[in-house]
Amino acid sequence: MKEKLRNLFFKIWYWYISTIDKNAEVIFMNFGYSKNNNKIDLKEEDEKNRYSAQLYNLVASAVEIKDKNILEVGCGRGGGLSFVDRYFSPKAVTGVDLNKKAVEFCSKYYPNENSTFRQANAQDLPFEDNVFDIVLNVESSHRYLQMNSFLKEVKRVLKPGGYLSLTDFREGKEELKELEKQIKDAGFIVEIFEDITENVVEALKAATPDRIKLVEKLAPKFLHKLAKNFAAVEGSETYNFFVNKRYEYVFYLLKS
Question: pTM for the complete prediction?
């Protein structure tokens, strides 16, 4: 019951951010990545989203993206796909998300002829076969009711030999084993696997002061505790789930 209530709040929070964030202060919605406090080079305007951008850098740098056709499934408010577009020089980027408001925001906020955004279900992608070179999926798949359908759809829209670069968390070893089985059943070849839970915790700890300021700026006071838990600030229940490995965060590079 507690987990269901948490998930319900997360859905409400996504809707709330889409409604209240008129100045585009929240364009990334992931937990972030940091390794021994090493910092990638970022433009000044991207510094405020450093740790979330570094998670996308991990995913995007695992495979050659330059001049490739990229799809992100679960693009949210588009910050990650914009980062990939600006830093990795793909041929074209397409983002899809189930949330209509998020797609409308992206289409307005990133008016780039190189970028396309569409509302779509991750488990029923509206594309022809063999269209994309690389599919990105960042901290989205844990909410999919039919992970097998998602993987099947990704394999369908990828060109032969294309890649799925996926990072996300699961609760407990059994869910991780299930994910491993789903990947195997879908016929993907695992080229890279990495447990990055400690790197996510490092990022969350470093980002906590800024995340608290943002929560207190955007959310009404009665929602502060829940919003800080959503943001996984240091000391929150979600943060502690990563610290004690109830939640484990993994990264996969999969070849079709």
Answer: 0.94
